[in-house]
Amino acid sequence: MNLMDNSIVIVNSCNKVNLIKEISKSELSDIKVMTFNELRDKLFFSYDEQAIYEVMKLENVSCGIAKKYIENLYWIDEIGSSKVKNLLQIKKHLMDNGLLVSNPLFKSVLATKKIYIYDIPYLTKEEEKILNGFEYEFINKDIVDKEYSVYEFDTLEDEIYFVATKISELLKNGIDINRIKLINLNDEYRMNIQKAFKIFNIPTN
Predict the structure, then answer these.
(1) Which DSSP symbol is given to 71?
(2) Cα–Cα dist 128/178, whole Å
């Protein structure tokens, strides 16, 4: 893996610790490793429990809903429906009360850095928006010699339970669900997967 000093490497959270250890063994001294969420917070804004509590009071919603409102503030545009206008009002209220913390200098600092995307094969539309206006380079692990595991199950139910368990583990480790794909599914698989994924609280589309 060829990296340059004065650079930022963006990784999935599950790869972050190992990559930092690997870089620490090299002679490179000026490399920052971060996830897309960390980069997003630096570029746009960060928030804490106080902001969530403020939205709970403002909109009379639960903690989970309030957090979703704030998460949506990263992606709203200045035009749109009444829902968008309401989110813009929430954003203004939080900013006016100092509950969204921004770093206006970070964007100019990032523009001086070399940006690497490590072991992430493609970007979601949100990730593309985060990096809009910046040049970046993909660096992927060498997959030629990678070992793959093949499993065999006695029943369809056992197979689907195994898949659901593995996907749950990936989600807990910070893997974006948009990067998890199931292919070549027939109607029997689809029906049983939908039932199992509801139990594991895994969204499907």
Answers:
(1) H
(2) 14
Residue 147 pLDDT: 55
- Tell me which DSSP letter residue 5 carries: S
For 37-88, strand residue ranges (E) read none
pLDDT of 141 reads 62
Cα torsion 3, 119, 141, 174: sign: positive
Q: Assign 3-state DSSP to the chain and report helix, strand, coil percentages, each to 5.
A: 50, 10, 40
- pTM summary value: 0.65
**Secondary structure class of 20 (helix, strand, coil):** helix
Strands (E), 13-145: 31-34, 114-118, 137-139
pLDDT tens, position by position, 40-52? 999 999 999 999 9
For the stretch 121-160, pLDDT in tens is 888 889 999 999 999 999 876 533 345 577 888 888 889 9
